[in-house]
Amino acid sequence: MSRLSETDVLDALRGVNDPELHKDLVSLGMVEQVVVDGRKVAVKINLTTPACPLKGQIEGEVRAALERIGAEHVEITFGASVRGPQQLPLPGVKNVVAVGSGKGGVGKSTVAVNLAIALSQEGARVGLLDGDIYGPSQARMLGLEGEKLRVNEAKKIVPLERYGIRVLSIANIAPPGQALVWRGPILHGTIRQFLQDVDWGELDYLIVDLPPGTGDVQLSLSQLTQVTGGVIVTTPQDVARIDAERAADMFRKVQVPLLGVIENMAYYACPSCGERSYLFGQGGGRKLAESQNTAFLGEIPLSMPVRESGDAGTPITVAHPDAPEAQAFRQVARQLAGQLSIRNLSTLPMV
Ligand SMILES: Nc1ncnc2c1ncn2[C@@H]1O[C@H](COP(=O)(O)OP(=O)(O)OP(=O)(O)O)[C@@H](O)[C@H]1O
Fold first, then answer.
1. Residue 62 sits in the same domain as residue 143
2. Which positions does UniProt annotate for ATP binding (predicted)?
3. What are 154-180's pLDDT values in tens digits?
4. Which end of the chain has fewer CB atoms < 10 Å from its terminal CB, N or C?
């Protein structure tokens, strides 16, 4: 059998589509390196996110395509560089993702912080902005209460760092327990400062934990930056859906693309036998996603360790990274990263 050339390999990879982006790996610029030695082939694929939900599938299809052209020893390695839109939302920040909910108490902050950590655990550079100005909870969930923010020589606020993510919360400025009353312009100015006067550094994802409902922060955020996309956290009940629909409508009104729906407190898994009980009903999040023509990003169980670890300042993804709940957060984080890649690549010119 004859030797293979780099062109043979690239031609074969032109026949492999990214399963989500529906374009071939070569056109997407994902083939970073090809080394051919006789019939031995080594390729490096540059994924669009380290949290790629379809890495295994891509690997299988690349291997099969190369074996079809006669490769006898195939080595596939992966790198990742998160793509942003052509015009970045903030300098150095590739994606701004707003996490919203129709009403309070559905676990939006819990989901936001665990998603941020899960993305960072997958290898992405992540920031978390506590946009819940009226009821900030991220400092507590990350054990950062009492820590004070500082300003660098360039007069930029330096975010705090915890568990691999950069964090900014009003709780690290305002005295604890003090109720904050904000008028529209002050609030707008604060959000502006939190976005623009902060040394976020290079980030793949900036997750913004919004206040519940639909309101001023959402509006300011969308006016001050090109939010890449919004996700909605809901619980399974039908009544929660009505509120969540309002949140979806709010994203639409402020022209923030909806990336998907996450269902929190989806079920309770019995710690001894694993049997699932659907305490709040079943399928509300999926129905919401369908009715809003958006992706269902996954479900997170109702679980004592999720609450306990959040209260203790070490979110479950840090406290028990191998627990099923942490795995559920990682699964959702991968789906979210996948949706962001789809969104950004559909707006980029092809190679
Ligand atoms: N999956 C879960 N299992 C168990 N407890 C949870 C889960 N998700 C959130 N909680 C708990 O529910 C409470 C409310 O969660 P959280 O503060 O994240 O909600 P929220 O929607 O952000 O609320 P608000 O908008 O009012 O700030 C917290 O005590 C949290 O630990």
1. no
2. 102-109
3. 999 999 999 999 999 988 887 666 656
4. N
The CB of 99 under 6 Å from ligand 1? The reply is no
Per the DSSP assignment, residues forming a β-bridge with 262 are 233, 298
CA of 287: how far to CAs of 135, 278, 298, in Å?
A: 29, 15, 12
Mutation probe of ligand 1 site: the residue of 110, 115, 263 with most atoms within 8 A of C-beta: 110
| 290 part of a folded domain | yes
Residue-range definition of the domain harbouring residue 160: 96-345
Q: Is the CB of 215 under 6 A from ligand 1?
A: no
Q: Is 107 annotated as a binding residue?
A: yes
The answer to whether the CB of 235 is under 6 A from ligand 1 is no
> Which of 80, 104, 121 delimits the end of a domain?
80
| Assigned domain for 91 exists | no
Q: Residue 5, class by beta-carbon neighbours within 10 Å (0-12 exposed, 13-18 middle, 19+ buried)?
A: exposed
Question: According to the annotation, is 109 in a ligand binding site?
Answer: yes
Question: What is the helix (H) or strand (E) element at residue 201, kind and residue range?
Answer: none
pLDDT tens profile 215-250: 888 889 999 999 999 999 999 988 888 889 999 999
341 is in an annotated binding site: no
Q: Which of 80, 112, 129 is the last residue of a domain?
A: 80
pLDDT recorded at residue 297: 98
Cα distances (angstroms) measured from residue 49 to each of 53, 88, 317, 334, 336? 9, 16, 19, 9, 10
Residues 45 and 103 occupy one common structural domain: no
